[in-house]
Amino acid sequence: MHQERILAIHDISCVGRCSLTVAIPIISSVGIECSGLPTAVLSTHTGGFTGFTYRDLTEDMVPIDEHWQTLDIKFDAFYTGFLGSFEQIDIVKRLFRDLSHEGTTIYVDPVMADKGRLYSVFGPDFPAGMRQLCEMADVIMPNLTELCFMLGLEYRDGPYTREYIASVLEQARAFGVREIVLTGISYEAGKVGAVYMDYSTGETGEVMRSEIPGYYHGTGDVFSSAFVGARESGLSLRDAVAAAVNFTVGSIIRTYDAKVDIRYGVNFEAGLRDYIAEVDAGRRGPSLIPATTDSDFRTLADVASTVWREAFKGIVPDAQVEYMLEKFQSYDAIREQVMDGGYTYLMMREGSRTVGYAAYVPEGDRLFLSKIYILKDFRHQGRTSAVFDHLREVARALGLRAVYLTVNRENTNSVEVYKHEGFEIVDTQDKPIGDGFVMNDFIMEMKV
Fold first, then answer.
1. Quick one: 244 and 360 in the same domain?
2. Would the pTM of this model clear 0.85, i.e. be above it?
3. pLDDT at residue 1 greater than cutoff 70
4. Among 4, 53, 203, 303, who pairs with 32 as Cys (CB 3.0-4.6 Å)?
């Protein structure tokens, strides 16, 4: 079995979690050989520390390249970060040419700016040089400041509209890259994350999480390293972005909760086990996984908040949807159903992403399918049938005679899907659920 070999080209700080001290352990944790080419050595990173030492290693990079060529070393992927000069950019271009094979993937994180400003070590002409490197890449991972500078656009602070970000991504098509991941994007106060686009397929999307107060050094390197590791492990673009966002947010939360000196970077080490598990799940593809942890319950509540508004739009009043979400599908409600109510919640996973869920509980001689919801973009792909096949097995194992569910009588699409899967309408009910709301449902049953 071939083991992927990546070359990470970054500086290295002896103290402080960033650059190579982040890239090598994160990428290696998912079974990829991560080699390192240091562009400089620092006693500490530059965020918050003073008096640090700095040794430029530009003059060592070409001899290293020449030595590797004598060994016929080739890399399956390159991953570049902070490059301190035009000379280093030119050397990295040479490395791409000398040490690639036909299937090599080039990832460029154009580290040079943030919050509308270039880093102080760079002059105004540097973005043009970095753009040339990006144009050699397959995948780029800029923040919005970096992308605006390379495109010659005026940077503006968020929150942004989706139309504006879409227009910027469209302009970045001129780079000729296959994929782009744009970090640090916010569409609403308190939420921040990454958006992505696959220019070859047109696929685009976003992964947003709650914003944690404060500024944390090295999180860009944590995100990019986790993304590269996940993408090179075979995860889809969407799942690799989700894995990187989850890992980065978890690292920030641990650091925020610990109230430690943030100059040393975020605690990513304690999250490696979960990151590895998420990447492994992504490698395995679609699956049904029981929800058992608080993290699972929060994920389900997030999915429910999206999918219920999709599923019930125009069927029941918006106020009733919001009431039902809070009463039945909030984090607290889901947790109580699982921990105290005997319910099993199954998360439908597409790689590392939860794209739907189902909940069931035995009732008498039948298995009650309380909920089954799938995000709009993942319907009509066989997931409903997979859940029903699973429920038949559960019901048979418990010695039950049937699976039954309730469905709103106005939800004609779902009724037809359930009929197609072998359910029959056996009754109707009008059930008050509080606050003056009533559920007007068919009761449908499937023999096992």
1. no
2. no
3. no
4. 4
